[in-house]
Write a structure and sequence with these properties.
Elements: E1 6-20, E2 35-48, E3 53-66, E4 69-85, H1 89-118, H2 131-158
Antiparallel strand pairs: 1-4, 2-3, 3-4
Region (Disordered): 142-169
Pfam family, one: SecB
Protein name: Protein-export protein SecB
């Protein structure tokens, strides 16, 4: 008997927020033409395997610089509890790695925009992200890394070492 599928949002919350503007007030005197750097990460943790309960945390870090001076760094860890059960591992991976980050992103984007304004800067309007494409890239990188690891292992096993002792990895 197969388990009934369920994908539910149980709770969405901010896990951590950080805002720094280390070069104020001097940075406010400069022409606002910032270089923006966005870093993101996604982590999922099984909270209850029996209930299919997962916590997914999307971390966004935005750094705005003018020339070589940091105007601000804002980091938001937007999280949620989700029920994800009855799916095979590939489907579950896609839900945790793409569908849920798509749900969390607007919350994190709004927080970043508000924090940039509260720091005295123009609103930071982040463009939508394609988490499906990012997840596919992640899968490709994993597959390539696994191929490299497998070929490295095969090469080290078939290539005798100078002292003919086994190599450990």
């Amino acid at each position: 008997m197969s388990e009934e599928r369920a994908f539910e949002i149980n709770k969405i919350y901010t896990k951590d927020i950080s805002s720094e503007s280390p070069n104020t007030p001097a940075i406010h005197q400069q022409n606002w033409q910032p270089e923006i750097n966005l870093n993101l990460g996604n982590q999922s943790t099984c909270v209850s395997e029996e209930n299919g309960l997962y916590e997914v945390t999307l971390t966004l870090t935005v750094t705005a610089k003018i020339e070589d001076k940091v105007a601000y760094v804002i980091e938001v860890m937007q999280a949620g509890l989700f029920t994800v059960k009855g799916f095979d591992s590939a489907q579950r991976g896609h839900i945790l790695g793409a569908a849920i980050p798509n749900i969390l992103f607007p919350y994190a984007r709004e927080t970043i925009s508000a924090l940039s304004q509260k720091a005295g800067f123009p609103a930071m309007l982040l463009n939508p992200l394609d988490f499906n494409a990012l997840y596919q890239q992640h899968l490709q990188q994993q597959a390539e890394a696994n191929k490299t690891d497998a070929s490295d292992t095969a090469a080290s096993e078939s290539t005798p070492q100078a002292d003919d002792k086994p190599t450990t990895h």
